[in-house]
Every structure is written in structure tokens, then in C-alpha cells.
């Protein structure tokens, strides 16, 4: 018996020694990779500084787009020291409300004004629902449990319902009454049942320890509707009841490790998305297609058949083998896919160490201010890169639209100087908004236009490392986010886009904006203490002009006395005036949402 105990003791010691050695050597390799990559990036940064043409710095670069927009910091600090609120008009508590239970049965709204009777469909919304799990709280708004909303329009009446997305993550958290799975900015509560062996094996596979909390957007695929996040999953929902149906695991099907939360729908029903795929020579950006129609027979595939026929139609290698860029959206025109590779990257070495340690992915994001943003034009016909452009470093989440005109490709983007706005969405940062004199500057964005000459170089003749340098022009002088256009204009020349304000220091941060890209002018709608969400355009039945139709935007009210109040507003898209609204008193607090879709006849 004693010999047996000694035998197992030796085995245990030997196994521990081997495992410790393996982990140490792996970490050492990652450190070496990171060291050499950092040296390489430093050379790239220095090369960019040395070779960037002087002429390009005299043109309107990214920095010039933001000059004079920020209030003097010394003045803000003085007000802070005097005990004054820095941004008294901005109520960030609208993001921090916790929905306590579903509203599965539609409730009828009180109508003010008039709701067009031709509106017959559902405004579906997705976004944060609760930052609480039991006695624990998420650290970042992007981690909040997904909450689905439905505003149903019929015969001039509107009803409302909401329901939590019952993802695997949500169900595990709810059952355990704690945060079970590590999210973007929140570490999971320690689980004593998970051994070091479990953590090591989990580094190299996609599994139950990866969050499927799809709380960003909703898009149709075929005849069905899916909630999206940036992890490679899609969750099917019932657009009428908001019931969670089943999960499509793209990672297991194709090896994709990331995809954007904003796919594109083609006229024939095909769906395109941009994904990151690991390969032997490093990660690649791949455009994946879910075909809706057979090109030869004209047969229309079911949604399941679309998933089964998913294919890669374009591929481009990431510029940094161990630092693929962070992608939230991409562009598509008649002849091109457009990939905008910003210098915000995901450090693969840090990400893998984080997986092993159970740390959030947020710390794996690396920003290289001195490296340029690359814009790739990729041919839709053969999937090959046609041309690559460079611009100053900027951060973005959302591309407004893109189109071809003459010999150019035009792309409009909601741009930030850097990714500081992600820091602004941490719960603690939102709670301490009025104590941070840099908050408004960190969240400052502007809609910028980049004109990409396809078969010639820019007029200035600026070439940076054999890639043309392009500088942007400003479309309007208001901060714009969650931009939407008339969907019929996606990928083609357009005139108008619609957005919400991103200027937290504005007189009214809850502003809806209409931008005329031809005249570079704006129209705004706002109401004191009202916070609209992403404006969605719905074309009128007899539309002739691009802006013939209405804007639908879900709204909530600021203040602790209005937490149980929600609504939806209808604007005339042409005149930018209110037509009507529906107001709902709810049984549970309603937080601000992110993105959605108008489902006609649902």
C-alpha cells in the first residue's frame, strides 16, 4: 500500500513538473514572438514617419478633422474642482438600467400624434439588458446580457414587448447566479471545479467557455432572423414572440474565429460577412458568402441550405501575423469588397494567455497610433486585392456607406481619433462621467469621406510605401454614430444618412441627425431628456425620392423617475419633423439599445 502511494506521488510530481515546464516554455515562446513583433512594428512605425510625404501632412489629415472641437481641458478641470458637473445634459444611467423580467405579451402603447397606417411590420432591437447577475456586475456595457425588443406596427397602433436572449451564456449565468463565462471586459467568477488541465485545453478550442451573448445586432438570413455578436455564432430568434430558437456555430463549421456584427444583404438575398480565419501563414480576412439563389437553376435555397453552402469568396492576409485587426463592419459595392484595417489589433499572444488565465479579451487589444490605417479594395469577381490605400491612424466601428463613382470608390466612415471610446463604455467610466474632463474628447467622432482613385493615384501624388495616401473630408461637424441609410442605396451613390449624436458635451446629447452628403448640411431633432436609438429608415409605399419615408427610433427617458418608460418615435424623413410616437409604461426598467432591423409584415 505504501509503495502504491509512493508510486502515485512520484507520478503526480512528474506530471506537475512536465506541465509546469510546458506552460513555461509556451509563455516564453509567446514573449519572444511579442518581442520580435514589437520590434517589427516599431520599424513599421518609424518607416511610416520617415516615408510619409510632406505634402500629405499639409492636406486635411485625421487630426485636422478634430481641431477646435474639444473644450479647453483647464476650464473643465476648474469646473470639476468647483464641484460642477462637466456634462450636465448627458445621463449615462440609461445604459446601466437592469431589466428584471421579460415582457413576452405585447402591451399597447399610448399614441401621440399619428402613426402612418401603411406601417405594417416590426421594429426589432437588440442591446444591453442587464449588467447584473445575482450579486455580481459586468464591467463593460458590451458584456451586458442581451435584451431583445419588438415594436409592432399595425393599423396606426403600436405594441411593445421585450425578452432576454436565452443564449448558453445567459442560461449558465442565470442558473449559477454569477458570471460564469468571461466576457469582453469582465472576468468570470472563479470556478473551483475547473483545473489547470481544463484551462490549457481550452486555449486551443472553441467551446462552452466562449461567450455566445449576441447583444449587438439583428439581421435576416433567408426567411429567418438572427442575433449577432462578434464571436462566430448566430442565434436564431422568433421575430414575433422574441423566443430564442437555436444557435448556428460558424466556428465549428468553418474554423472562423471572428466575424463582424454587420453583414451585408445582396439584392438576390445572399448574405456577405467579413471574418477572420487562421491559416498556416497567419490570420487572414475572408469575405464569406451565404448564397440565397443557385446561379444556374435559379432555385432559392432555404436558410439551412444557405448555411450549408457558405463559402469564402475573397481572402486577404492580415498585415501583422500575430496582430490581426479588430473588425466591426466592412464595405461592399457593385465590383468591390472594402476592408478597412485600422491599427487597433488583437494581440494573439495576449489573447491566448488571457484564455489560459481566464482574463477578458479587452486587454488583448493593442493600438498602434503611429501606424497607418489601410484600406483594401478587393475584386468581387476573383477575390483578389485590386489596390491598397493608406491614411492616418483612426478608429471606427461603423461604415456609413460606400459606392463607385467615375474612376473612384467613395467610402464614408464614422471616425474617432483613437479607440478611447471603448474605455468610455466601461460601467465605472459611465458612472464617473462627470468626473472625467477627457470623456467628451475620448468619445468625439466625425463622419469622414475617403475618395479612393482606382486606376490612378491621388491628385497630390502622395505615395507611402507604394500605396497611395488618402486624406478625408468632413461630411458634417456633428458627432454621428449607429448610421443608417435607405437600404436600397447600400453600395450605390446616395445622398442622405441618419444617425444619433455621439457628442456627450452637446446641448442635447439625445439628438437624431439627418446628413445631406451632397450639400454637407444637417438637420436635427431632439427633445429634452429623451434618448433615441439607431434611426432606421422605412420607405413609403409610393416613394419617389431617396428620403420619401419615415424614420423609426426607439426612445427612452433619462432620470430615475422614468426608468419604466419606453417608446418609439416616427419622423418624416424628408422634413425631419415628428409625425407621431407610441409611449409604453413597462413593468421593468428599459435600458438603451444598440442596433436592430425593421421586419416588414412581421
Automatic annotation (TrEMBL):
<keyword id="KW-0479">Metal-binding</keyword>
<dbReference type="InterPro" id="IPR004294">
    <property type="entry name" value="Carotenoid_Oase"/>
</dbReference>
<feature type="binding site">
    <location>
        <position position="595"/>
    </location>
    <ligand>
        <name>Fe cation</name>
    </ligand>
</feature>
<keyword id="KW-0408">Iron</keyword>
<dbReference type="GO" id="GO:0046872">
    <property type="term" value="F:metal ion binding"/>
</dbReference>
<protein>
    <recommendedName>
        <fullName>Carotenoid isomerooxygenase</fullName>
    </recommendedName>
</protein>
<dbReference type="Pfam" id="PF03055">
    <property type="entry name" value="RPE65"/>
</dbReference>
<dbReference type="GO" id="GO:0042574">
    <property type="term" value="P:retinal metabolic process"/>
</dbReference>
<feature type="binding site">
    <location>
        <position position="262"/>
    </location>
    <ligand>
        <name>Fe cation</name>
    </ligand>
</feature>
<dbReference type="GO" id="GO:0003834">
    <property type="term" value="F:beta-carotene 15,15'-dioxygenase activity"/>
</dbReference>
<feature type="binding site">
    <location>
        <position position="398"/>
    </location>
    <ligand>
        <name>Fe cation</name>
    </ligand>
</feature>
<feature type="binding site">
    <location>
        <position position="328"/>
    </location>
    <ligand>
        <name>Fe cation</name>
    </ligand>
</feature>
<dbReference type="GO" id="GO:0010436">
    <property type="term" value="F:carotenoid dioxygenase activity"/>
</dbReference>
<comment type="similarity">
    <text>Belongs to the carotenoid oxygenase family.</text>
</comment>
<keyword id="KW-0560">Oxidoreductase</keyword>
<dbReference type="GO" id="GO:0016121">
    <property type="term" value="P:carotene catabolic process"/>
</dbReference>
Amino acid at each position: 500500500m505504501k509503495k502504491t502511494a509512493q508510486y502515485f506521488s512520484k507520478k503526480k510530481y512528474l506530471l506537475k513538473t512536465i506541465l509546469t515546464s510546458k506552460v513555461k516554455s509556451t509563455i516564453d515562446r509567446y514573449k519572444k514572438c511579442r518581442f520580435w513583433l514589437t520590434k517589427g512594428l516599431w520599424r513599421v512605425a518609424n518607416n511610416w514617419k520617415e516615408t510619409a510625404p510632406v505634402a500629405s501632412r499639409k492636406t486635411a489629415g485625421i487630426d485636422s478633422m478634430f481641431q477646435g472641437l474639444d473644450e479647453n481641458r483647464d476650464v473643465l478641470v476648474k469646473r470639476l474642482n468647483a464641484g460642477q458637473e462637466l456634462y450636465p445634459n448627458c445621463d449615462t444611467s440609461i445604459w446601466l438600467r437592469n431589466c428584471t423580467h421579460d415582457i413576452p405579451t405585447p402591451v399597447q402603447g399610448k399614441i401621440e400624434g399619428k402613426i402612418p397606417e401603411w406601417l405594417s411590420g416590426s421594429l426589432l432591437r437588440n442591446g444591453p439588458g442587464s449588467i447584473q447577475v445575482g450579486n455580481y456586475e459586468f464591467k463593460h456595457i458590451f458584456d451586458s446580457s442581451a435584451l431583445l425588443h419588438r415594436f409592432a406596427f399595425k393599423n396606426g397602433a403600436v405594441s411593445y414587448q421585450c425578452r432576454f436572449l436565452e443564449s448558453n451564456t445567459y442560461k449558465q449565468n442565470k442558473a449559477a447566479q454569477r458570471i460564469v463565462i468571461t466576457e469582453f471586459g469582465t472576468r468570470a467568477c472563479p470556478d473551483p471545479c475547473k483545473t489547470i488541465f481544463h484551462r490549457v485545453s481550452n486555449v486551443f478550442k472553441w467551446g462552452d467557455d466562449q461567450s455566445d451573448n449576441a447583444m449587438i445586432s439583428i439581421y435576416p438570413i433567408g426567411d429567418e432572423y438572427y442575433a449577432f455578436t462578434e464571436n462566430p455564432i448566430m442565434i436564431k430568434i422568433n421575430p414575433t414572440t422574441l423566443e430564442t430558437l437555436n444557435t448556428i456555430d460558424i466556428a465549428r463549421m468553418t474554423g472562423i474565429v471572428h466575424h463582424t456584427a454587420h453583414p451585408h444583404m445582396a439584392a438576390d438575398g445572399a448574405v456577405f460577412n467579413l471574418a477572420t480565419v487562421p491559416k498556416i501563414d497567419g490570420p487572414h480576412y475572408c469575405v464569406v458568402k451565404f448564397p440565397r439563389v443557385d446561379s444556374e437553376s435559379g432555385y432559392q435555397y432555404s436558410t439551412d441550405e444557405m448555411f450549408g453552402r457558405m463559402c469564402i469568396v475573397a481572402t486577404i492576409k492580415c498585415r501583422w501575423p500575430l496582430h490581426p485587426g479588430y473588425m466591426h463592419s466592412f464595405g461592399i459595392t457593385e465590383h468591390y469588397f472594402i476592408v478597412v484595417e485600422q491599427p487597433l489589433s488583437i494581440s494573439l499572444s495576449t489573447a491566448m494567455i488571457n484564455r489560459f488565465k481566464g482574463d477578458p479579451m479587452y486587454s488583448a487589444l493593442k493600438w498602434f497610433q503611429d501606424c497607418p490605417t489601410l484600406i483594401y479594395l478587393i475584386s468581387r469577381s476573383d477575390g483578389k486585392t485590386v489596390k491598397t490605400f493608406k491614411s492616418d491612424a483612426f478608429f471606427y466601428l461603423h461604415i456609413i456607406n460606400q459606392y463607385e463613382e467615375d474612376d473612384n470608390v467613395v467610402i464614408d466612415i464614422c471616425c474617432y481619433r483613437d479607440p478611447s471610446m471603448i474605455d468610455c463604455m466601461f460601467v465605472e467610466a459611465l458612472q464617473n462621467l462627470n468626473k472625467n474632463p477627457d470623456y467628451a474628447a475620448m468619445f468625439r467622432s466625425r463622419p469622414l469621406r475617403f475618395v479612393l482613385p482606382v486606376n490612378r493615384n491621388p491628385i497630390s501624388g502622395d505615395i507611402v510605401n507604394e500605396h497611395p495616401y488618402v486624406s478625408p473630408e468632413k461630411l458634417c461637424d456633428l458627432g454621428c454614430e449607429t448610421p443608417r441609410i435607405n437600404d436600397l442605396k447600400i453600395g450605390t451613390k446616395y445622398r442622405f444618412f441618419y444617425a444619433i449624436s455621439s457628442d456627450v458635451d452637446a446641448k442635447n446629447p439625445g439628438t437624431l441627425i439627418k446628413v445631406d452628403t451632397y450639400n454637407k448640411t444637417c438637420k436635427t431633432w431632439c427633445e429634452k431628456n429623451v434618448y433615441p436609438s439607431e434611426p432606421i429608415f422605412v420607405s413609403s409605399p409610393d416613394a419617389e425620392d431617396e428620403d420619401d419615408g419615415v424614420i423609426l427610433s426607439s426612445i427612452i427617458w433619462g432620470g430615475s423617475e422614468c426608468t419604466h418608460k419606453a417608446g418609439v418615435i416616427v419622423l418624416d424623413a424628408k422634413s425631419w419633423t415628428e409625425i407621431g410616437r407610441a409611449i409604453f409604461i413597462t413593468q421593468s426598467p428599459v435600458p438603451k439599445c444598440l442596433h436592430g432591423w425593421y421586419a416588414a409584415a412581421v
